[in-house]
DNA sequence: TACATTAATTGCACAGCGTACAGAAATTGG
DNA sequence: CCAATTTCTGTACGCTGTGCAATTAATGTA
């Protein structure tokens, strides 16, 4: 049961730790977007030669995976399992939290979607979600299906929002993004797309907190209909 | 009203057309994955020097945008507006169609999510969706919100499926993907993630047709609850 | 028919990327 | 003090997007 990470190894001492590599990557992600999260960029950030990074991770994908894990690990799973709060509220809190955190560095969600999410923090999140949905009255099979549905919904919504942001810069405020959309929507020919043009005001607000919560509520409605079967 | 694309221009004749550029890109996408859709790869496919591509598109992002538009344009919108079919069935058909088409070249959905979907084919799809949801009894505002919800759901589900596929190769059959997942899930420690381990069988099938349809049905349930308010 | 104009294509170059390989530097157990 | 072991660096290869200048091909006009 000894910590088998410390027992005084032989060779040269490490200049940094794996966590510092991840930290440097996240620093780049926030400051210069997802494309800037490069091996060479991270190395420069740490004052190392590019290939020194390969001491800590086998390839770029592994670094990305560790970053994803770190981002997922920041979520407050305790709030998710607090059984004194209604289950729908708990999910709303988690979803809002994830959205805020992931849109803080646009491009982060693209990292999530660039590989399977199979790390321990991803598992922990899934497990907590299953617990909430059991509280909601779903049997284990339905709870599992619903948990995936929720993850799809949350990551999908965030990904679509992120898709229309130019990667660098930590995302303008929502009001500004809505205004930009409204401006672009005014160019739509009302004769060819009458319904779209007519609903332009609502469409402009697709990237708002309200639409995000509305969509989640419809999903939760659908899930709730399967409860205590 | 004359075709202002033909009136006999002056300089050298174009070796290919914009559509051939897009076709070459899609050929690469299907054969060697999203990463292979490079300017140089397209140029090689067409027998041109790399920078000749810049005659047709200003940069790589524009090429990607055209590819996305082309993929969206392949969807059968007529089936969406056939009012003799129940509206839920029509949406299921469209969703299944999109999934099949996008998973045919994994990585395609990442292209969709790499920029705003604001081309004419994207607009046409949105417009058709609004019509279906009007048929479902939603007022224009709710229909707009629901249409975005549906797009989020469909693209999110496809993106999550694509995320765990190694980009090249046109996606193994579903049964094989489920088997692979089941294998990986057997490694999950049941003591730390009891619910996850217990539902492993269901979780393995997250990438199945059934889960896709199940999730869509929950979303449609939620949307249906807002009809004829 | 000859020439000038215009557009498409090419060659070359630059800066960046991931990463493989060999060697130098640093640290420790014996 | 030496040998073993680990980390870090130098160098290099092949790939990417794309800007600039020169070349090639097609046309309208004289």
From TrEMBL, chains A, B:
Residues 15-75 form the HTH tetR-type domain. Keywords: DNA-binding, Transcription, Transcription regulation. Signal peptide: none annotated. The keyword Coiled coil does not apply. It holds the Pfam family TetR_N. GO terms for biological process: negative regulation of DNA-templated transcription. GO terms for molecular function: DNA-binding transcription factor activity; transcription cis-regulatory region binding. Residues 38-57 bind DNA. PROSITE patterns: HTH_TETR_2 (PS50977). InterPro entries: Homeodomain-like_sf, HTH-type_TetR-like_transc_reg, HTH_TetR, Repressor_TetR_C, Tet_transcr_reg_TetR-rel_C_sf. PANTHER family: HTH-TYPE TRANSCRIPTIONAL REGULATOR BETI, HTH-TYPE TRANSCRIPTIONAL REGULATOR RUTR. This is AcrR family transcriptional regulator.
């Amino acid at each position: 049961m000894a910590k088998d990470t410390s027992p005084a190894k032989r060779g040269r001492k490490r200049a940094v730790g794996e966590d510092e590599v991840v930290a440097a990557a996240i620093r780049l992600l926030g400051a210069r977007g997802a494309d800037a999260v490069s091996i060479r960029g991270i190395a420069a950030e740490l004052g190392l030669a590019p290939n020194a990074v390969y001491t800590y991770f086998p390839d770029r994908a592994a670094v990305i995976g560790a970053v994803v894990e770190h981002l997922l690990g920041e979520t407050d799973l305790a709030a998710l399992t607090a059984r004194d709060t209604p289950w729908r509220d708990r999910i709303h809190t988690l979803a809002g939290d994830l959205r805020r955190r992931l849109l803080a560095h646009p491009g982060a969600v693209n990292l999530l979607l660039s590989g399977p999410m199979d790390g321990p923090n991803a598992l922990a999140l899934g497990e907590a979600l299953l617990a909430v949905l059991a509280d909601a009255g779903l049997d284990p099979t339905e709870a599992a299906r619903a948990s995936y549905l929720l993850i799809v919904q949350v990551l999908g919504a965030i990904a679509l929002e992120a898709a229309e942001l130019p990667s660098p810069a930590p995302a303008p405020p929502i009001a500004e993004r809505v205004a930009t959309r409204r401006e672009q929507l005014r160019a739509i020919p009302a004769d060819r797309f009458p319904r779209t043009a007519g609903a332009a005001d609502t469409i402009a607000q697709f990237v708002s907190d309200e639409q995000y919560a509305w969509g989640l509520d419809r999903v939760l409605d659908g899930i709730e209909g399967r409860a205590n079967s």
